[in-house]
Specification:
about 170 residues; mainly alpha; two-stranded antiparallel ribbon; 8 helices
Length: about 170
């Protein structure tokens, strides 16, 4: 049973489902709990979406060639690595608060200072303060959890990429 859970298709499927779940929970925090994302949170969301979509394509394609699995794993690794980089920077901003650590202007300032045609695109960039911790679970903030998940996805991608000989031998025996 455990060996089937560590197969590339199962791991890619898990990565996709985890990314979808994390995005869903992020939207609940934003729209139900009114926790506004900051620009770095928005970038992390993009990285979760990219990681999840690549993993979904990989799971659906389910290539039997080691180089195909390795390519998908590399793409997941790069997308998750980009997310880990952003999350790491976000964690650093939280752990080293500075007056200039704000990632963008607040909504009131934007409405007063810019025409509505410019404010609407800015809203998609996020308006929260990157140095502020608005939510925690088990002592970790959202960017810290994001970093944990991104590193986990990177490790899973590395595992998939290293499964070349095991999987190829199984297919040649059948």
């Amino acid at each position: 049973m455990l060996s089937r859970l560590t197969e590339p298709r199962a791991l890619f499927s898990f990565i996709f489902l985890a990314c979808a779940g994390l995005m869903g929970y992020g939207l609940v925090l934003q729209h139900v709990d009114r926790l506004e994302p900051c620009p770095l949170c928005i970038l992390q969301r993009y990285a979760f979406i990219a990681t999840g979509l690549i993993a979904l394509v990989a799971a659906l394609h389910n290539t039997r060639h080691w180089w195909g699995r390795a390519l998908y794993a590399l793409l997941v690794f790069v997308a998750a690595g980009a997310g880990a980089g952003v999350a790491g920077r976000h964690v650093w901003l939280i752990l080293n608060p500075q007056p200039s650590a704000v990632c963008g202007p607040d909504l009131d300032y934007m409405i007063q200072s810019f025409p509505l045609s410019q404010v609407l695109p800015m809203l998609f960039k996020g308006e929260g303060d990157c140095g502020k911790v608005g939510w925690q679970f088990l002592g970790l903030s959202i960017p810290e959890w994001a970093l944990v998940w991104f590193v986990g996805f990177m490790l899973a991608a590395l595992w998939i990429a290293l499964q070349r000989h095991v999987r190829d031998r199984a297919h040649t025996i059948r």
